[in-house]
């Protein structure tokens, strides 16, 4: 009898580890797919990462900076809802005058840029300064339009972090 119980225990342990290994393999595949999406979006918009330079400093396309700044702003208020993500994609498409599919890819690249900055707070200030370098004060109106469209899709009110981010953005664009 103890032999049968030990055999059943061994079978259960093997089954448990096989299921866990399958789950880990699936998760690894999803991570690789996400990394591939970022790589393809970067290639599509001509973004190349340079060594010894932060990825935000390597941005040359203002649309990448705009989408990244919008992603960072949305992520300041907890996890963004599906409606906020869709509103961000729609806003970037409309403001940057790009097709919706391109706006989605810009969003993927933007979320990666935010993650490379560490926190959304750091991303907002860094991306706002970069957008100012790329477009001077002409970049301020599109940013504010994207922020307005995204905030209307959410609760309609801004969190304290988002209000602080608006101050950071206006100071980066030297607007008082």
Features:
176 residues, mainly alpha, 2 domains, 0% strand, elongated
SSE diagram, text form:
Layout: H1 2-44, H2 62-75, H3 82-96, H4 100-117, H5 120-135, H6 140-153, H7 160-172
Task: Provide structural commentary.
This protein has 176 residues and is an all-alpha fold. It folds into 2 domains: 1-44; 55-172. 76% of the residues lie in helices and 0% in strands. The protein contains 7 helices and no strands. α1 crosses α4. The longest helix has 43 residues, at 2-44. The relative contact order is 0.13. The mean pLDDT is 79.
Short description:
The protein has seven helices and no strands.
**Can you tell me the number of structural domains?**
2
Strand element count: 0
Give the overall pLDDT as a whole number. Answer: 79
Helical percentage = over 70%
Radius of gyration: 21 Å
Number of helical regions: 7
Distance between the termini: 82 Å
What is the overall silhouette? elongated
Major β-sheet profile: none
Order of helices and strands: HHHHHHH
What percentage of the residues does DSSP assign to strands (E)?
under 5%
Q: What would you call the structural class?
A: mainly alpha
Low-confidence regions: none
């Amino acid at each position: 009898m103890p032999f049968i119980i030990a055999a059943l225990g061994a079978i259960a342990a093997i089954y448990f580890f096989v299921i866990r290994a399958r789950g880990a393999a699936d998760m690894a595949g999803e991570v690789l797919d996400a990394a591939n999406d970022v790589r393809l979006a970067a290639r599509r918009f001509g973004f190349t990462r340079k060594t010894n330079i932060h990825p935000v400093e390597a941005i040359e396309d203002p649309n990448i900076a705009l989408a990244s700044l919008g992603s960072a702003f949305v992520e300041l208020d907890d996890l963004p809802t599906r409606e906020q993500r869709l509103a961000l994609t729609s806003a970037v498409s409309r403001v940057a005058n790009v097709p919706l599919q391109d706006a989605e890819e810009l969003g993927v690249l933007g979320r990666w840029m935010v993650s490379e900055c560490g926190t959304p707070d750091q991303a907002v200030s860094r991306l706002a300064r970069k957008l100012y370098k790329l477009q001077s004060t002409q970049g301020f109106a599109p940013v504010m339009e994207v922020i307005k469209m995204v905030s209307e899709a959410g609760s309609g009110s801004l969190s304290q972090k988002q209000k602080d981010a608006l101050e950071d953005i206006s100071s980066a664009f030297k607007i008082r």
